[in-house]
Structure formats: C-alpha cells, structure tokens
Write a structure and sequence with these properties.
Layout lengths: L2 H4 L10 H11 L33 E5 L7 E6 L7 E8 L10 H6 L1 E2 L5 E2 L2 H8 L4 E8 L5 E11 L8 E3 L2 E3 L21 E2 L19 E2 L27 E8 L4
Antiparallel strand pairs: 1-2, 2-3, 3-5, 3-12, 4-5, 6-7, 6-12, 7-8, 7-9, 10-11
C-alpha cells in the first residue's frame, strides 16, 4: 500500500488530505490561536519539511508540512515551547476519547485530531526523521498541573521493514532517563525497541504489551508509556500512570 493510499486510512477528524488542505486555507482564521493564511511562511505550492522552517514569529497552530518522499501532512506546529519550531507528533490526555489500541496500519498512517489527541503516523515519523538529525522532547503534566520534560539530542524512527525501531541519543531534562536506561524491575528499555501494536507483537515479553495499553516501543513491557487511555506513565512524575497529559515534539538538532 502506498503512502497516497495510506492517507485514506486516517481516522477521526483527519480526513482526506486534499479536503483538509482546502478547508485549512479557507477556515484556519476562524478559531482562536489558529494562524491566518497570511501568517504562513510558505505559499500553498511549497510546503516546509517540518515546523522549524516557519518564521519564528509565526503563531502555534495548524500548518501543512511535507517531509521528503512524503505527501503533505497536516500537523500542529508548536511555536511557544523553548526553541520554537517544534512539530507535534503525539498528544494525549488522560480521559481521551481515543482508545490507542489501534492496528499496525492505523498507527502507520496516523489517527486523531491534530488540534487535540492524535498520533502523526509511524511511517511519517520515519520519513520526517530521515531528512536529517532530529531531537525530541517528551512532555508530561502531572496531577498537580506541573509540567516535566525529557529531551534526547537524537531521535529517529527506522523503516517499517525493520519494525519502526526507536533510536535515541543523549538524555537531558528532569528526573531519570527511563527511555535509554535499562530498568529490569520495570519494563527493561525502550531505545532500539521495535514498535508493537495489538495486531503486530514485536516486544520481548511473552505476551503482547500493546493489548493492555496501545502502540509503543516496548521491551518487557514498559518503563514509560504515553499511548494509552487513562494510563499515562512516567516514573517519578506519574508512577501510577496518572499523568493528565503527554506531548511528543520533534525538530532538527545541531548534533551531527
């Protein structure tokens, strides 16, 4: 199945891209905090490769990007977080309407609403991070409404043929490194793990971790999991899986 065909499989409010693009250009000024067509940094015919190519003065909101070898994608660009120009690839809230227990193909092409809870698409994560060297910021909000983050100076998702494994670089941020560190009494490790879904088990556990939570880079099963309904786990911040929200942001890094 080609990428163009895959766009027809987007769920929820992610409708067919040609329709989305026309609606975006026609209606984007209607909602609060949404950029007007005049605030876009590129013309309709030439989409940026990611949100880092927008002008620094552009507001956060819905934009169209086009990673190399990819059809155009509607995304949320975060122009407020430190450094600006972040492409949002995941957003989740504790009481989300999304179950997150979706199939491999659904995860591949993405689902949800870019203005709310959503998954960009594992294939598009791969295409996006093949363009150069990217970094990632994982953000969670705890029950006290405090925000915490973990950043890795390299973030890459490999190809579908290799199982969409996760590659992470050096850790910085708050708390301990629960993604590249090995924790045998928890879920092992996440770095270098293949992506697993309810219908494609690629973890190192005897069962299928995705059956209990959702698609993720599992080992045995998790130290951290952000793709789940009523269970957003980050040790030290939300030990009981009770984070109120999560966000995954990516942008190019200076690391060679």
């Amino acid at each position: 199945m080609g990428l163009q065909a895959g766009t027809r499989q987007l769920h929820g409010n992610l409708v067919l891209l040609p329709v989305v693009v026309m609606m975006l250009l026609h209606c984007v000024s209607a909602g609060p905090g949404m950029p007007t067509t005049s605030s876009r940094s590129v013309p309709f015919a030439g989409f940026p490769a990611d949100c880092s190519h927008l002008r620094k003065t552009s507001p956060s909101g819905v934009y169209v990007i086009q990673p190399a070898r990819s059809p155009p994608r509607v995304v949320w660009c975060d122009m407020d977080t430190e450094g600006k120009g972040w492409t949002v690839v995941q957003r989740n809230t504790y009481n989300t309407e999304i179950t997150w227990k979706e199939s491999w193909t659904t995860y591949k092409y993405g689902f949800g609403n870019v203005q709310g809870d959503h998954w960009l698409g594992t294939e598009y994560l791969h295409l996006l991070t093949q363009q150069g060297t990217y970094k990632v910021r994982f953000v969670v909000r705890d029950k006290a409404n405090a925000t915490h983050y973990a950043e890795y100076d390299i973030f890459r998702v490999e190809s579908e043929s290799s199982g969409y494994p996760l590659r992470l670089g050096r850790f910085s941020g708050e708390g301990d490194d629960y993604l590249t560190g090995y924790y045998p009494k928890k879920g092992g490790i996440h770095d270098n793990m293949k992506f697993s879904t309810v219908d494609k088990d690629q973890d190192q556990y005897s069962g299928n971790c995705a059956n209990s939570y959702g698609g993720w880079w599992y080992d045995r099963c998790q130290n951290v999991v952000l793709n789940a309904k009523k269970y957003i786990l980050w040790p030290g911040f939300c030990d009981k899986g009770d984070c109120t929200s999560s966000l995954i942001l990516v942008k190019p890094t200076d690391v060679c």
